Amino acid sequence: MADKEAAIRAVARRADHVYWVREWPDEPTWRDRLRRWMNPAAYHFDRTATPPEPWVDRPAGYYERTGWRIRAAYVESDLAFEVEYVVCDLCKIGWVEAPHSYEGYKRCGLASAALQSLGRVYPGVQWHTGGGHFRESEPFWDSVGVGVPGGYTQRRRCHHVEPQRAR
Questions:
Q1: Rounded mean pLDDT, 36-48
Q2: Which CATH number fits domain 2-154: 3.10.590, 3.40.630, 1.10.1760, 1.10.3470?
Q3: Pairwise CA distance, residues 83 & 71, whole Å
């Protein structure tokens, strides 16, 4: 048990050691093909292998959520934590949604480490959530939001991130 806790703490301390993944699109354009030809390693990630870094940042993979990414933590080969996020460079606002620690990794500091790391990767960005907070999660958001611009309060996504639908 102590070994597992030490491994989790080590992963939390390395939250800035991130392996960035750009997945190969389903229908690549000629530019995508050229980029893949020039730098094939940037388009490959073996989901069954242990990532080279304890943290992985990858596209969310949802067609309706273009631009969203997932920051995930791996403890050895176990997926321990994930959070979805998107950043609008024009508005300097970011949104995080659905932080989730998997069983055996709850209350170990991975969520706090991930959110702090995102703040360092995107300096000057205000951070919010798109939805409300569950009553039982309010202490978590209050804790991680201290000193964070925006404080992870609820805010609608801007039209750059989520285009408004025609009515």
A1: 56
A2: 3.40.630
A3: 5
